[in-house]
């Protein structure tokens, strides 16, 4: 029985590539002590309860946000803080939705939730006058945090560490965004941009150099280079 060490899913058929995250599967000869889900997933009672809770949360959030917008409109001269609360509710909804979605790998979840969190912070900065702290410090720091998380995950998931190389390349591309913002005058601090880019390049280069053949095979399998 083959297993994807990235998703933790086992496959009855002898597939070599995980259909969920596209990582290479490996043979798992260990005897199973407990039942583990196979692909495709089947929703169980716990998942249905979480889905019901998400529906209840959605309804409650819509009602609460409508009340907050009305209060904000009548109390203040413009709608401001109610947008912040709405953004936080949307972020909480997406987090809850990700928690019940098993077809997305945790690499995707970590990246998307971090970027959405940064988007909420940028929105708060914009609504409070936009002093630039969100794009000067929070955005580059978030990329450095993701790089650090990738390193930890590579150590923990040492059997399939090479599956994180595409994410490292994506982070290098994303680290160019702060430079673009700095070029157009949206951000004023280029030091954090440089630190984030250097960390991303260092992590990728270290993975390729130390990983050797396995890293090159992963690059060829993903990008045919």
Automatic annotation (TrEMBL):
Which protein is depicted?
A: Zinc ribbon domain-containing protein
Q: Which InterPro entries match?
A: DUF6320
Output the Pfam families linked to this UniProt entry: DUF6320
Keyword check for Transmembrane helix, yes or no: yes
Q: What is the lineage of its organism?
A: Bacteria, Bacillati, Bacillota, Clostridia, Eubacteriales
Sorted alphabetically, the keyword list is: Membrane, Transmembrane, Transmembrane helix
> Where are the membrane-spanning stretches?
52-73, 79-98, 110-131, 137-156, 168-185, 191-212
- At the top level, the lineage of the source is Bacteria
Question: Transmembrane: is it a keyword of this entry?
Answer: yes
Q: Can you name the source organism?
A: Eubacterium ramulus
Q: Which residues form a coiled coil?
A: none
